[in-house]
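User: Run a structure prediction on this.
Assistant: Running it now.
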Amino acid sequence: MVVVAIFVLYFGLNFLKGIDIFSPISYYYATYENVGGLVSSSPVFVKGFKVGQVEAVKYDFSKDVPFVVKISVSKDIQLPKGAKIELFDDGLMGGKAIQLVFDPINASQAMYTPGDTVASQVGTGLMAQISGDLMPKIESISNQADSLLRSVRTVVEGEQLSNSLVSIEKTTSDLAVTSAQLKKLMSNDMPEIMSNVHDITGDFKKVSGNLEKIDFAATIESVNHTIANLNLITDKINNNEGSLGLLVNDKSLYVNLNSTVSSADKLLVDLKQNPKRYVHFSLFGSKTK
């Protein structure tokens, strides 16, 4: 029972540590200046697949590279020369793990012997990768935000904004005055205007009623009769019919009138120059010539 208990205890502890005591394993070593929180029982991966764990982390601060990490991997995992044991971040919480980095295709035929010290390296952490990707963008955004804040500050502290606010305040005041005047107009003048409009509408209605009573047919017939008479008179004038036609179209009448006017003009001139020829006035009488 004691032997069985000891076996169960040993098997249980190794099981909790993730060690399969029934599978053959190989041990390898790697040295680091800083393990960044790596502890025993941390997993060992090959391309994301767990193949072992960290057995122990030993340190000797008298050396330049003080930490020695012992890992165990399955016996069937053989490390070719050129492979490296890499320490990397396992998740966002800051945990550390080990992964074996090698290229099986290009690997040389020489293999590490279990118990050898393999070359080590520290991989770029997940947070470092995120920081490396985000920092340039964050810096660019920060510069743009700073430029935007400078522009906003310039606008806020400038005179143009103050003038605009003054103009807006004045416009608001004018709108308030206009609104008051419009309210007064609507309450006082608008009823009178509507009354006048009502009266005008009534007058238009009366005019419309009077227009309906007019006999437009008789009026148009009278206008057509008048136009026909005018056309008849015009035709008679143009055809030398009647006195007006003869007066307008007879040239001799114009010549005779012109001659008569000329003779009358000469007579008046002679009468003015020799009045005694035409008028005789004497108190005692005179001889008749």
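The first strand starts at residue 25 and ends at 32.
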